[in-house]
Write a structure and sequence with these properties.
CATH topology of one domain: Cytochrome Bc1 Complex, Chain D, domain 2
CATH class of one domain: Mainly Alpha
Shape: elongated
Structural class: mainly alpha
Strand content: under 5%
Strand order of the largest sheet: 1-2
Number of helices: 10
Radius of gyration: 30 Å
Largest sheet: 2 strands, antiparallel
CATH superfamily of one domain: Cytochrome c-like domain
Oligomer: single chain
Helix content: 40-55%
Distance between the termini: 143 Å
CATH architecture of one domain: Orthogonal Bundle
Length: about 250
């Protein structure tokens, strides 16, 4: 009976040694920093935020009289406003308009990571896939055309604001706008438009962007203006000629 415990104790000792070796090996490996917690990126985001955003949105994103809070806005909102050049503003405006992008892509990612540290669970940057074109057309006409027009060129809204053209926005920016609801636009969460419906709308907007102008100076991409002008001028000239002929005859 005294011979059996020895092999069992030997196996336990061997397992203990292997466990210690594995622990030392894992502990010796360098930790892989996550993109959102990279110290260099966070420092860069902090520097950019303090220089370009804090004067309006507050030192910790709490907001002020000059700008809304950024707590809980989500990565999609930060990415949309920075990618489309709507932020940062050089001067206070009633409505931020699309403009040249002020930051490089790495700097935008740094700002997104830094603002995410303010807290909240706003929408993340949405994925975009090819969707059903027919369904996208129906959803666009039901939810978007009344403000952005059936051709995507936008309309003037009440109070001097506008629903901007969407013909210059890429697929990701369209999807972000749907989820974020910038300015007067309502926010379409996943409970209102699911991922398949979002993909369908984005696909249809891409189709609108590919529609060719029909020649001449376009009138909201509905048709040419130059031919209409020539037609009116020709009609006016015809009236003048008829009156001159009528006077000579009389």
């Amino acid at each position: 009976m005294s011979r059996h415990p020895r092999p069992r104790l030997g196996r336990l000792a061997l397992l203990l040694v292997l466990g210690v070796v594995a622990a030392v090996t894992v502990a010796g490996r360098p930790a892989t920093a996550q993109p959102g917690t990279d110290p260099a990126r966070i420092d860069r985001g902090r520097t950019l935020y303090q220089a370009s955003c804090a004067s309006c949105h507050g030192q910790a994103g709490e907001g002020s009289q000059r700008g809304p809070t950024l707590i809980g806005v989500g990565a999609a909102s930060v990415d949309f406003y920075l990618q489309t050049g709507r932020m940062p503003l050089a001067t206070e405006q009633q409505q931020a308009r699309r403009g040249p992008q002020k930051f490089s892509q790495p700097d935008i990612e740094a700002l997104i990571g830094y603002v995410a540290g303010f807290g909240g669970d706003g929408p993340g940057i949405p994925a975009v896939h090819a969707g059903d074109l027919g369904q996208g057309r129906e959803l666009y006409l039901q939810n978007c055309a009344s403000c952005h027009s059936s051709s995507g060129t936008g309309y003037a809204q009440v109070g001097g604001e506008i629903a901007p053209s969407i013909l210059q926005s890429d697929a990701k920016q369209v999807a972000e706008a749907v989820r974020v609801g910038p300015a007067l636009m309502p926010e379409f969460s996943d409970g209102v438009l699911d991922q398949r419906q979002l993909d369908a709308v984005v696909t249809y907007v891409g189709e609108l962007q590919r529609l060719p102008d029909r020649g001449g100076a376009s009138l909201g991409r509905i048709g040419p203006v130059s031919e209409t002008v020539v037609g009116f001028l020709g009609l006016a000239l015809l009236v003048v000629v008829v009156r001159l002929v009528g006077r000579r005859t009389s």
